[in-house]
Amino acid sequence: MRLSRKSDYALRAIRHLSLLPKNELGSINSVSEAEGIPREFLAKILKDLTRSGLLVSYQGVTGGYRLARLPKEISFLDVIEAIDGPIHLNLCTEAEGCRCEQYNRCQMKEFWGAQEKSFKKALSREHFGKYRNIKK
Asked: For the purposes of burial, counting CB atoms within 10 Å of the CB of 59, is it exposed (0-12), middle (13-18) or buried (19 or more)?
């Protein structure tokens, strides 16, 4: 499994916005320049993050983006799943169930289920509040 470029950029954008002073908005241009993210791609990412409820957008000349929740309330898992959808390490762990002919007698599905649960738990523990204490 590889984290998508879109999720990587989304994590960087959220981190950037989490470091802004309270009530300050981040513009697409400022995030794009600071994080080295192509502006047009970033616009799509910020739209997805807003639609998912992680960001709030403000229109107009002085508009921009801010986090919808406190940085400590936004996990890496929240961001990745907002961009790429639910994380699954294997077909066996998808909600609809695996359509594999081996599914009913599969000896690996418990392993993949446990690994996925552990991975998601680790991503849930990582949040953006910890970056507020790091000096730029």
From this structure: exposed
